[in-house]
Design goal:
CATH architecture of the largest domain: Orthogonal Bundle
Helix content: 55-70%
Radius of gyration: 23 Å
Strand content: under 5%
Number of strands: 0
Distance between the termini: 62 Å
Shape: elongated
CATH class of the largest domain: Mainly Alpha
Number of helices: 6
Largest sheet: none
Order of helices and strands: HHHHHH
């Protein structure tokens, strides 16, 4: 078992800033410092910091990450409970990708007039015809 760490050492190990750790504490993702003196971070809290970062890369919001952390600390939660949330996030990402693809197509159509010698007010991008 690794020895308990100060906030700066925990930040280095988890590859986050000290300010980020304090923010996560304010948001309820990590337990806040109790009483006066230095806050000490355990292996479990370093693992939680890494989970938060990984979950953010997957697109989870801090609120959703709070749910994932609650699942980890629950004896009743199962892997399926986690997978349900991951599948929900995957569906959101796929819907967003479809939306972005449609926007991309509209922008490409708007750029069709690029080499034409029109005034800006005649540009299809600004005309709002699409």
């Amino acid at each position: 078992m690794a020895k308990p760490r100060t906030i700066s050492r925990a930040a280095r190990e988890a590859e986050v800033s000290v300010e980020t750790i304090r923010y996560y504490e304010r948001m309820g993702l990590l337990a806040r410092r109790r009483g006066p003196g230095y806050r000490i971070y355990t292996d479990e809290e370093i693992a939680t910091l890494r989970l938060i970062r990984r979950s953010q890369r997957f697109g989870f919001t801090l609120s959703e990450i709070r749910e994932l952390i609650a699942l980890l600390s629950s004896d009743a939660a199962t892997c399926d409970d986690v997978c349900v949330r991951a599948e929900r996030k995957l569906n959101e990402i796929e819907a967003k990708m479809r939306e972005l693809s449609a926007i991309r197509d509209l922008l490409k159509q708007s750029l069709a007039c690029r080499n034409e010698q029109r005034r800006a007010r005649e540009c299809t991008m600004l005309a709002g015809d699409q």
